[in-house]
Amino acid sequence: MMETAKVTSSNQRRLKLILLNVCVGQFIVGLDQRALLVALPTLTETFNTSLTTIQWVLLIYDLLLIGTVITVGRLGDLFGRRRFYAGGFLIFVLSSALCGASQNAWQIILCRGLQAVGGAMISANGRAIASIAFPSQQRGQAMGFASMAFHVGFLTGPTLGGFLIDTVGWRWIFYLNLPVGFWGAYLAWKLLEESRAEAKEISVDFPGAILLMLTCSLFIYAMNQMPHLGWTHPQVTACLGLAALALGLFIFVELKAPMPILSFSLFRIRLFTASMFSLFFITSTQSAISFLMPFYLQNVLHFSPTHMGWIIIANSAVIVMVAPIAGWLSDRMGSRLLCTIGSSVIVIGQFFIASLGVDSSVPRILFPLLLIGLGWALFNSPNQSAILGSVPHDKVGTASGMNTTTARTGGAMGVALSATLFTYGLAAAGLSRAEVESPQTWGNVPEVFVHSFNHTVHIVNFFTILSVFFSAVRGSRQE
What we know:
CATH class of the largest domain: Mainly Alpha
Helix content: over 70%
Structural class: mainly alpha
Number of helices: 19
Radius of gyration: 22 Å
CATH superfamily of the largest domain: MFS general substrate transporter like domains
Largest sheet: none
Number of strands: 0
């Protein structure tokens, strides 16, 4: 009995270290993503370039991460998650060093593209590793801690990034990743047992991988440019058309591939499909609110950037506190009830956001943001657990990659839709094209801004109601 107790104790310690390793990966991905936001003005000045050019430091990361995350998750399923997860850390470290040493804008943009591949390998395979390592009754709690780690990075990023820029310089935003990344790679290689598909013949679906990356990249780029250029601009329509063509070819290739990158059979699983739809609709509305709120706070209420930052991170603070608890509850209750309650709370929070005025107080603003953070914490960890727990073990990496792709795609669509609706409202109120395209002028007509803002949030909130619906009809718990 003592030997059994020792084995159990040793296994629990190993599981805790694996979870720590996964949390480290989620933390540095979240940290690096947010820390760089505050560095954009500094990078523009350092490299003597335009904002249009330097925005590619962020955009290239999103395009390549979304385009590759399903593929690297599937490759981890086939050739070993430990290999791809530890390799992701090393690629992230190498690319961070190159970003820090960049001498011009295009060097840092190219190195950020390489960093996105490393981030995709960490994101997709990390959650898959935690899902496989932990028994079903502990999976939700593990996903909760992973979510908490990501949001801790999200919270820390802007503050730490600003501190580093003001003290030792922007390059240390990247150099800071080196010791953390090496430690993450070492832990992964030492702790994890290699896992891979047991098929006798393993082939890589390279045509499917390339077509998937093209589909996602073209679509996300079109969504990114749509608010600036309009729906009918040739560049937007051409990208959407090429994305549709690439998607059609991708589906054709995948249906015939012996070992496809994306197995469409996963969508026959009711819990998986409903959870994905819930995630898509809820992230589209979350990103829409996140996109519009800074303009409301800064241009209408005239908060300083520092004050505005403290208000915006209120929901992330709630997520950090509640996500592990929600994950623990999902292990005992399943995901349906928690996801339905969580998405319903977000609907209520966004309804209050849509009723903000030109003179709303800070407590009046914080209350709905805290509600939204609570709802997201109740929704996200159980939903991730449901997605990863509903698929076969040899498809967990694919499912994890699809989780990230769905969230990022929903986010891009939410920003594009909200920007289009909002600017349409400004134009309908009589603002000139120059005024619509100049955020600095919106504070001169606060009533017009708030009217368009409120209507836009009410419209996008409808999609959160769809998330409530898919959460409610997802079916019973499935392991």
